[in-house]
Amino acid sequence: MLKKLLIACLLLSLIIAGGLVWSYQQVKSSLDLPVQTPENVLITVKSGTSFRGLLNHLAEEKIIRPSTWTRWIPRLEPELVRLKTGTYQITPVMTLRDVLALIASGREHQFAITLIEGDRFIDWQTQLTQAPYLKHASKTMSEAEIAKAIGASGIEKLEGYLLPETYHYTAGTSDIELMRRAYQAMMSLLDEAWQTRDQNIPLKSPYEALIMASIIEKETAVDDERGVVSSVFMNRLNKGMRLQTDPTVIYGLGESYDGNIRKRDLRTPTPYNTYTIFGLPPTPIAMPSKASVLAAVKPAESSYYYFVADGKGGHKFSKTLTEHNRAVRDYLRTLSK
User: Fold this and answer.
1) What are the residue boundaries of the structural domains of the chain, listed by start?
2) Which residues are tagged with the site Important for catalytic activity (predicted)?
3) Which of 2, 39, 184, 275 is the most buried (most CB within 10 A)?
4) In this predicted model, what pLDDT tens digit does every residue of 177-187 receive, in sequence order?
5) Residues 247-277, buried b or exposed e (16+ Cβ, 10 A)?
6) Do the bridges between strand 86-90 and strand 111-114 make them parallel or antiparallel, or are there none, so unpaired?
7) CATH number of 26-105
């Protein structure tokens, strides 16, 4: 009788053990099932979200199939249920285990925004307003208030002060934080560039170098030309000539610019009309790239005083007005073909 009881207990133990092993394998299998999404998706884990709430959300979004086995994951894999708030990207190659490990790690999805060189501050504001998952803290702030918030106290206009670059951020980051990073990056670049400048350039301060860099940026997008364009403006400044550069006129026209520069625009005095003023305009006219900043402080050596578009994406540089006028006529003939 005792022997039969022992055998029965042994069989029961084997059945229970087998059931536990089978259950364990089912939980493991549920973790290793691939997600159901055919494309990358973003999910946001909010503060206070429970593990059960996360699973329900994933099932509602059709990222995973509902399973009764997933409720046992906290007992078997407790490290996977330590949820961290944030926004995460789920890809089609992931499994549920991968998703939970990602959320437990806190490695949030990095969004990217590329702020373009040559754009104005107002253009950047528009771009930042349209950026996804970015907190728009500056929406009701004036330019001077934004400047103060990013650490640029005493500055009224931010034109030129932010470095064009690709910036990464996580969901909920403030646009002020991105602009602060861009400002600090430009100040670091400008300080280093000014310290290593050509001592013969006719610029009196880092800010004047920033103004010059913005003009170079608007005049050419050809890297090999930046230093030469810079040399033209330096030569004209050294000789007491007006810069006579169209982009400054356009900037001065502001909202009234309709895509065309007329003779009256060149004759109408504004603080930015370098056809009527001597020297530099009062502020930068765009956000200059690193290449333009470096060209402003280290221009090429040349005897050029003029340049005009060559109709092929670059410019024709001239030493005399006679040569320049000939280059202008050649350019106009190119346009008429």
Assistant:
1) 26-105, 111-190, 201-336
2) 219
3) 275
4) 999 999 999 99
5) bbbbbbbeeeeeeeeeeebeeeebebbbbbb
6) unpaired
7) 3.30.1490
